[in-house]
Specification:
The chain is about 50% helix and about 10% strand. By secondary structure, it is mostly helical. It has a single domain, classed as dinb family like domain (Four Helix Bundle (Hemerythrin (Met), subunit A)), CATH 1.20.120.
Length: about 200
Amino acid sequence: MAAVPAICGTSGGGAGGSDGPQPLAASAARDQATDVLATLTGMFIREWLLTEFDHEMASTRRVLERLSDDRFDWKPHDRSMTAGGLGTHIANIPNWAGAVLGASSFDIASQAPEREALPSRAEMLHRFDESAGAGRAIMDRTDAEYLAPWTLKRGEHDVFSVPRLMAFRTFVLNHLIHHRGQLSVYLRLMDVPVPPIYGPSADEG
């Protein structure tokens, strides 16, 4: 394995330009980075991606659980989605895993219209659990499959091509995180306690 470059420079030398001993903090950081790199390179892409997926799904479910049935029609602006519509959209996002990992391309011109908002929290959570479960099941792929090209199309036009891994993180994980952030703002505006996501919120530790 190639050596990891030092994070901090060595201490300055004298007129002759000789280097002094490397600071302990820089040496420890280098050793830690080397250990992390060794761990990651010893894992399959599937393994570390599943860890991230499971964390994001669990955090997202906690946010969805805070949306009560009587607030499903609420929205912060006339052009905004309703809280129920946004929650339903989030519940469907893990289904993108099949579109990315189950095929080499996706044509957005053939995409079905957005489903109507579900009428209750129970149905929304059930939909989310189904789509997250289906998404996780299809993630059992080899590194070669994750690194294979995937193309987003619009009819005959290729919009872009990226490795499946990048497409998965964009259309599933980043997409989910983006809309979950929106819903957390909805909760704050409705005076509903926001659960911890990456750490304590203003409401809960």
